[in-house]
C-alpha cells in the first residue's frame, strides 16, 4: 500500500514538473512564453531600466504568461549575431537601430544618417509615417524581422576627442569609432573623420592603446564608459539622433497567441516613448557630469557639418528619399 502511495505521489510530481518544463501553468493550463531581450547597453543604462520596467508590466498584464528576461552588456552576443538568431526563430529580442536594419531594407538606414533629424520628436514623426510602415512591412515579409517598436531614444551622438573640433576639417585624419553599418560609416566619413568599426565594449581600450583617436557616442554611454579618463573634449556636433527599435523574429512572434502579440507591441511602444522622455530630461545632467570630471564641451556651429553630411546622402542614394520623407512629415 505504501509503495502504491509513493508511486502515485511521484507520478503526480513528475506530471506537474512536466507541465512547467513545457511552459504550462499548473492552474489555468496556459502556456508561458519567454522572450530574451538583448542589448549592448550596460546595467546602469536608462534604457535598460526601461526594459526592466517593460518586463514587469508585460508579466503583470499577461498574468505571467509572457516573461521578458533582460540581458544587458552583450551577454547574448553581438547585435548582428542575435539578430540572425531572431531571424532563425529563436525567442530573442534585440535593441537595434536604423543603420543595422538598413542591412536588410536599405532605405530604413536613412534614419541613422547624420542630421536626418534635429531631435527626438522629428524622428518620432518619421516612425509613425507611411514610408516607415512600408519598411517595417518589408522587414517582416521579406526578412522575417518583426518590429515591436521603434521609438526608443538614447540621445544625440557627438564626437569625443583629444583635440577640439570646431569644423569638419578638424576631424581630418582622426580615426573615430562608430558602428559598422553604411549609414553610420559614410556619415562619419562625410563629416571629415576616418570611421573605424569596433564593438562598443572595445572602445575604451581602443582609445587607451591609440588604435583609435576617439569615438562618437551619446551621453548616456559616454558617462558610464568613463570616457573622461581618456579624452579631453566633447565636440557637441549632435550629428546622430539615436532612435532605436526592439525587434524579434517573425517566426517566433507568430507562435504567440494574438492577445500576447498585441500586448507586446502596445507595451513596448508605450514604454519606449516614456523612456525616451526620461533620456531627454537627463541629458543636461550627464553633460554637466563630464564637465565636472574635467572635460571641455565644445559648442560647434552645426551649419558646416550639416553641409558636409550631404555627401553621404548622395553617396548612398538617400537625397531624394530624404526630401520625400521631409514632405511627408512637414519638415522644411
What does this structure look like?
It contains 13 helices and nine strands. The chain is globular and about 60 Å long. Helix 2 packs antiparallel against helix 11 and helix 7 (182-190) crosses helix 12. The chain has helices spanning 2-21, 46-61, 79-87, 98-101, 120-127, 130-143, 182-190, 203-208, 219-222, 250-253, 258-292, 303-316, 319-329; strands at 33-38, 66-71, 92-97, 145-161, 175-178, 194-197, 214-218, 233-249, 296-299. The chain has 332 residues and is of the alpha/beta class. Strands 1, 2, 3, 4, 5, 6, 7, 8 and 9 form a nine-stranded mixed β-sheet that branches.
Low-confidence stretches: 1-29
Q: Residue share in helices?
A: 40-55%
Mean pLDDT: 91
Rounded to the nearest angstrom, the distance between the terminal CA atoms is 85 Å
> How many helices?
13
Summarize the structure.
By secondary structure, this protein is an alpha/beta fold. It has helices at 2-21, 46-61, 79-87, 98-101, 120-127, 130-143, 182-190, 203-208, 219-222, 250-253, 258-292, 303-316, 319-329; strands at 33-38, 66-71, 92-97, 145-161, 175-178, 194-197, 214-218, 233-249, 296-299. Helix 2 packs antiparallel against helix 11 and helix 7 crosses helix 12 (303-316).
Amino acid at each position: 500500500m505504501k509503495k502504491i502511495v509513493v508511486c502515485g505521489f511521484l507520478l503526480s510530481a513528475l506530471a506537474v514538473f512536466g507541465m512547467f518544463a513545457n511552459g504550462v501553468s499548473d492552474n489555468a493550463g496556459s502556456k508561458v512564453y519567454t522572450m530574451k531581450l538583448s542589448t549592448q547597453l550596460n546595467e546602469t543604462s536608462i534604457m535598460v531600466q526601461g526594459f526592466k520596467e517593460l518586463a514587469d508590466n508585460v508579466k503583470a498584464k499577461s498574468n505571467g504568461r509572457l516573461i521578458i528576461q533582460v540581458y544587458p552588456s552583450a551577454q547574448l552576443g553581438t547585435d548582428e549575431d542575435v539578430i540572425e538568431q531572431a531571424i532563425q526563430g529563436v525567442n530573442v529580442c534585440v535593441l537595434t537601430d536604423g543603420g543595422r536594419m538598413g542591412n536588410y531594407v536599405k532605405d530604413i538606414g536613412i534614419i541613422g544618417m547624420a542630421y536626418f533629424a534635429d531631435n527626438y520628436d522629428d524622428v518620432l514623426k518619421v516612425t509613425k509615417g507611411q514610408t516607415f510602415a512600408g519598411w517595417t512591412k518589408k522587414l517582416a515579409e521579406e526578412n522575417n524581422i518583426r518590429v515591436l517598436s521603434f521609438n526608443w531614444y538614447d540621445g544625440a551622438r557627438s564626437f569625443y576627442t583629444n583635440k577640439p573640433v570646431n569644423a569638419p576639417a578638424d576631424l581630418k585624419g582622426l580615426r573615430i569609432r562608430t558602428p559598422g553599418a553604411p549609414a553610420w560609416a559614410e556619415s562619419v566619413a562625410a563629416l571629415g573623420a576616418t570611421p573605424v568599426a569596433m564593438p562598443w565594449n572595445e572602445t575604451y581600450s581602443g582609445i587607451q592603446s591609440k588604435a583609435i583617436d576617439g569615438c562618437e557616442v551619446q551621453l548616456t554611454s559616454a558617462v558610464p564608459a568613463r570616457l573622461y579618463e581618456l579624452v579631453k573634449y566633447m565636440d557637441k556636433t549632435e550629428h546622430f539622433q539615436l532612435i532605436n527599435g526592439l525587434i524579434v523574429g517573425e517566426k517566433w512572434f507568430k507562435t504567440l497567441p494574438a492577445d500576447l502579440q498585441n500586448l507586446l507591441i502596445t507595451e513596448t511602444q508605450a514604454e519606449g516613448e516614456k523612456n525616451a522622455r526620461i533620456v531627454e530630461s537627463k541629458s543636461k545632467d550627464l553633460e554637466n557630469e563630464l564637465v565636472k570630471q574635467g572635460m571641455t564641451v565644445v559648442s560647434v556651429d552645426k551649419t558646416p557639418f550639416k553641409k558636409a553630411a550631404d555627401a553621404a546622402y548622395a553617396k548612398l542614394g538617400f537625397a531624394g528619399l530624404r526630401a520625400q520623407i521631409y514632405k511627408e512629415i512637414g519638415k522644411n
